[in-house]
From TrEMBL:
Record's subcellular location: Cell outer membrane
Organism of provenance: Pedobacter heparinus (strain ATCC 13125 / DSM 2366 / CIP 104194 / JCM 7457 / NBRC 12017 / NCIMB 9290 / NRRL B-14731 / HIM 762-3)
Keyword terms of this UniProt record: Cell outer membrane, Membrane, Receptor, Signal, TonB box, Transmembrane, Transmembrane beta strand, Transport
Alphabetical list of PROSITE patterns matching this protein: TONB_DEPENDENT_REC_3
GO molecular function: siderophore uptake transmembrane transporter activity
Cited PANTHER family: HEMOGLOBIN AND HEMOGLOBIN-HAPTOGLOBIN-BINDING PROTEIN 1-RELATED, TONB-DEPENDENT OUTER MEMBRANE RECEPTOR
Listed name of the protein: TonB-dependent receptor
Length: 770
């Protein structure tokens, strides 16, 4: 027995070096992606635990390491992204690493919006802005307004949570309701309806992981739209994290929010699921808002050639609408609701459901495809001062994009060809509003809207640092209206197909300067509610608004990369702009009777005051500023009555709803102990409220601040507790205003929607790490 025991000891001793050597020779390979856009990331450097460089990812994001010790960690490093620690284990030696964008170096983040070949924001020809989840969380997280207003040239107006309007470079500011002229996508799936209108209330702000905002016509990839494009990406689980998070928020005016989030960031499946409940009694009378959010975002890696994504979203909204007030009413009591809105119990009650399925497939190193299909439907219960509307909407569609790199040795080029289709059906019934109850039916109309676009783009390298981009899209739109009560007003409105080209030239001189010049065109068709004459029939002569945009853009990093800047100068001329003419309450007609000029300058600056070190207590101290100057004017702008007769001319006037100067400045402070502080100052110049420039919304300034403490408690718990104060100066102002409002019966025009005065909030997030 003793001899047998000695024999076993000897065998184990002889095996130990072999086992140890075997552990050191574990091969590891995989791909590295942007966690939000799923783009492969080239040039990622992988380091060992002792800081030795192991390898670097290639153009496909692929890497391979011959020998790594199990249960060890390696680091993935790329400028513009957070350093990712990767745990190696014997169960998985084919990795799908996902890197998160670093909010401190956004100029270095790879841009997906233009389908560029792994180009950073600094290298991309076009005015593109990035928002990360951190930017969105700098405020209470109830609205995108603070984050979007920090981007020069972008404006989100909102007073209550029931109404929001987004404009880019002045386009979209004249929308009577909702958002138009701006195309919005979520995970490459269009949220904008087939007629060009968008409502973003279905998006849970806290579930957004990133947004890319393309300013100006972006027709070569996204078709119709003169304002630009916003690409939202839903949050994904951090790589190799599995967690369950509970969060709570409470604040002024009866604000409450509770949410639970599950995250699992594996190599084969990335899962993000969140459920939230939110209620806000409101700053004004009759402004209660309730939301229920359910969001699921899944990413599967079945092979090294394929990525599959699945998005599920269901949202319920119950919102009261207080309505606009006159200047006298605001002075008397800014908390009151419009009498008509109160009497008619105006509100919006609806439930959205959105399902999207996508696939990225790489046939080989030269040829790849990205395709998504979706369906989207909601029911709308919408009492208004002049009617009670019930709608049911359903749409379906898809988007596909093929990319080919033939590998030219002379003038290397990359080609993109794709298509997008979106069809929506609205079944709408309109009743007389009897104090919030349906009365007699006065309209029963179906709208079937169909939109498609074909697009092409090529990128050609003229020199090592010089790129020429050519793009073209071909777009078509058709409205089919069926009026069951007035059948003679049924009909079809088909817009002439539009071809919209884009050309851009980009040259990178150094890290300090990348210079870009572009010329692009775009168009925005009228929405389904804007195509009718005063009698309800279809206006056969109404056409889309058209624009041509000239732009010069400079981006770079200075002072040892601590100062990042983005400067854009643009000139956009629009013709055929839609002019709204209010005939009577609830009836507005539109005509192509306007030309406008949009000339502007946009500047974004951020500076890292302190360079973080392992010993420094302050790891981030970053002041930033976004400055916008807009010289927007009417060139040939006339108001027509229902008979097409000129009733007024506004040539030379300032563009309605546009503030000449807008500034957003702030500072971020983060410490190694976990204490953080975000401060923000917003200034908006006075702006004209009507086309005649006879009434103005006064200039205003708002100061906001948030302080918090974030700490890892042991190995399993992560705590984040915070408090914030908005409108610290307790200013009276109206963020969203009703442009060209009319006071019927001799009353003053109700232009104003008073925004909340000083208000605070506080919250707690507790995350359990498995």
């Amino acid at each position: 027995m003793m001899n047998l025991f000695r024999y076993l000891i000897l065998c184990i001793g002889l095996l130990m070096p072999f086992l140890h050597g075997h552990a050191q020779n574990l091969p590891v390979k995989g791909h590295i992606y942007d966690s939000q856009t799923r783009q492969p990331l080239a040039g990622v450097i992988l380091f060992s635990a002792n800081n030795q460089q192991l390898t670097k990812s290639d153009a496909r994001g692929f890497f391979e390491i011959a020998a790594v010790q199990p249960d060890n960690k390696i680091r993935a490093v790329l400028a513009g992204y957070k350093t990712q620690s990767i745990k190696i284990n014997t169960a998985e030696n084919e990795l799908n690493v996902q890197l998160e964008a670093d909010g401190l170096s956004l100029n270095e983040v790879r841009i997906a919006g233009y389908n560029n070949a792994n180009k950073t924001n600094k290298e991309t020809a076009g005015a593109v802005a990035l928002l990360t989840a951190k930017d969105i969380s700098r405020g209470s997280g109830l609205s995108l307004q603070p984050a979007l207003n920090a981007i020069p040239g972008v404006r989100m107006d909102q007073s209550t949570l029931s109404e929001a309007r987004i404009s880019i470079r002045g386009n979209g500011v004249r929308a009577a309701y909702g958002i138009r002229s701006v195309k919005i996508y979520v995970n490459e799936i269009p949220v904008t309806e087939a007629d060009g209108t968008t409502r973003i209330e279905a998006l849970d702000v806290n579930s957004i992981g990133r947004a890319e905002i393309i300013k100006g016509p972006a027709s070569s990839i996204y078709g119709a739209g003169t304002a630009g494009v916003i690409n939202f990406q839903l949050q994904r689980a951090p790589y190799q994290e599995q967690s369950l998070e509970a969060s709570g928020l409470a604040g002024s005016y009866g604000l409450h929010r509770l949410a639970a989030t599950y995250r699992s960031g594996g190599d084969k499946l990335n899962s993000y699921v969140s459920y939230g409940w939110q209620e806000y009694e409101g700053y004004r009378a009759h402004s209660n808002d309730m939301r229920r959010f359910l969001t699921g975002n899944f990413q599967l890696f079945p092979s090294d050639k394929r990525i599959i994504t699945l998005m599920l979203n269901r949202t319920t909204q119950h919102s009261q609408i207080p309505g606009s007030l006159t200047a006298a009413q605001v002075a008397a009591d800014p908390l009151q609701a419009n009498a008509a809105n109160l009497d008619k119990q105006a509100g919006r009650y609806q439930t959205w459901t959105r399902i999207g399925l996508g696939q990225q497939y790489r046939f080989n190193d030269q040829f790849s495809n990205s395709t998504s299909v979706f369906t989207y439907f909601y029911d709308l219960d919408h009492p208004l001062p002049y009617a009670y509307i019930r709608n049911f909407y359903q749409s379906y569609g898809g988007r596909t994009r093929f990319t080919y790199d033939p590998g030219f040795s002379i003038l290397p080029s990359r080609f993109t060809l794709g298509a997008e289709f979106n069809e929506g059906l609205t079944k709408g019934t309109q009743y007389v509003n009897n104090q919030g109850k349906e009365g007699t039916v006065n309209a029963n109309i179906d709208y079937q809207n169909r939109q498609y676009s074909l697009f092409y783009q090529s990128e050609t390298t003229l020199a090592p640092q010089t790129t020429l981009t050519l793009g073209l899209s071909y777009n078509s739109l058709r409205y089919d209206v069926k009026d069951y009560l007035k059948q003679n007003q049924s009909g079809v409105k088909k817009f002439n197909p539009q071809a919209t080209p884009r050309i851009a030239l980009s040259h990178t001189f150094s890290e300090a300067l990348s210079l870009h010049a572009s010329v692009s065109s775009g168009f925005s068709p009228p929405s389904g509610s804007e195509i009718k004459n005063v009698d309800g029939s279809i206006n056969p002569v109404l056409q889309a608004e058209k624009a041509i945009n000239y732009e010069l853009n400079a981006k770079g990093n200075l002072l040892q990369s601590r100062l990042a800047y983005d400067l854009a100068l643009f000139k956009m001329d629009m013709k055929g702009e839609l002019i709204a003419q209010s005939v009577q309450q609830g009836i507005t007609v539109y005509n192509n009777a306007g030309k406008t000029s949009h000339n502007g300058v946009e500047l974004a600056l951020s500076y890292q005051l302190l360079k973080a070190t392992d010993e420094a207590e302050i790891i981030n101290l970053r002041p930033f500023v976004a400055l916008t100057y807009s010289d927007f004017k009417f060139k040939d702008y006339k108001t027509l009555n229902a008979q097409g007769e000129v009733t007024a001319s506004y040539d030379g006037n300032k563009l309605t709803g546009i503030a000449p100067w807008v500034m957003n400045a702030g500072i971020d402070l983060e410490t190694r102990t976990g204490i953080y502080f975000y401060g923000n100052y917003f200034y908006s110049d006075r702006l004209p409220l009507n086309d005649g420039n006879t009434a103005y919304n006064a200039a205003y300034q708002v100061l906001n601040a948030k302080i918090g403490y974030k700490k890892q408690l042991g190995n399993c718990l992560e705590l984040n507790v915070y408090a914030g104060l908005d409108n610290i100066g307790n200013k009276n102002y109206s963020s969203i205003v009703s442009l060209n409002a009319i006071g019927y019966g001799g009353a003053q025009p109700p232009y104003f929607n008073p925004s909340p005065k000083r208000n605070g909030y506080g919250g707690l997030n507790l995350k359990y790490l498995f």
